[in-house]
Each structure stands twice: as C-alpha cells, then as structure tokens.
Amino acid sequence: MTRKLILSSPLLEITISRLCQELIENQINGIETVILGLQPRGIFFAERIAKELSKHLEKAPSVGKIDATFFRDDYRRRETVSPNSTDVPFLIENKRVILVDDVLATGRMVRAALDAMNSFGRPAKVELCVLIDRIYNRDLPINADYVGKSVNTLPTEKVLVEWTEQGHEADRIWLIPQPE
What we know:
alpha/beta, Rossmann fold, 5-stranded parallel beta sheet, 3-stranded antiparallel beta sheet, 21% helix, PRTase_dom
C-alpha cells in the first residue's frame, strides 16, 4: 500500500481561510486573542493562521510557540528526548488562547500542552485548532473546536504534514501506512 494524499494547495489555503473565518466569528468581545503553536510542526500552522487573521483583523494576534515534551505522560519512558524551544513572549492571563497543532491523534500532546501553558498564566478561554483530526484514535476525551479536515485512520497509519517552511517543495498532507 502506498501513501495517499489527503490535502494540498489550493485546498489547504481554502481550509486555512475557512478556519480563520470561524475563529473570527467566535471572538469574545473585550478579550484579546493569542495563538500558541505546539512544537514542532504546529508552529508552521499557527503562523499561517496568524498571517491569514491579520488580513481580516485590525490587530493581528500575538503568536507564540510552546513545547510540551517535559509535560508528556511518556516523557520518562522514552529512550531519547529531543525538546524544542518554547517562546511565549506574552502573558496569557485572561486572554483567549487558540492552541494550534497540525494533527490531533490521541490527545496526549494537547493534554501536555495544557499543562505547559499553566506557567504563562490562566487564560480566560482555551480553544483547540487542528489541521487534521484523526478521529477514532483518541486515548483522552479531547476534541478540537476548529478542524480543517477529519480523517479516518487505522492505528497502523500515520499522518505526515509537509510544510514549505520545513524545506518541502509544496505543502502536502499524506496518509502513510506503517509496518505492523
């Protein structure tokens, strides 16, 4: 079985634009919105969201990146740990935080990111925006508020997101079979 293309340009740009319209529609009056991209690949999606939102809003939302490596429940079980940088140049206290990741699978990374966020303040509201939701794959009761595309996957399949910012020739999202 070969890999299958799930999403690419121009449909990807349309999907991002639609997600941004939903984010704008659900703004809370009087509460500032900030965006936190989950390291490593969620930051590329977060930057795309922020760029698109800046076209439609008077004030572009602040963007940060958060690494949840040391907050994962399997942190001490892993042989190798490669943490990424965290850069949250703002407080999240009393703000609407849009937590952004490329793929929502088991929910464990989102749970870890919520724990990591606590050191930056207590937000008024946290919403989750994901590009791909691997439905039927959840270990924890976590669901996204904003979903680009829902995909049925088997446990033996992997979703791979390729961004031009990572050096790929085009933005593409693949469903890849993994050896059992």
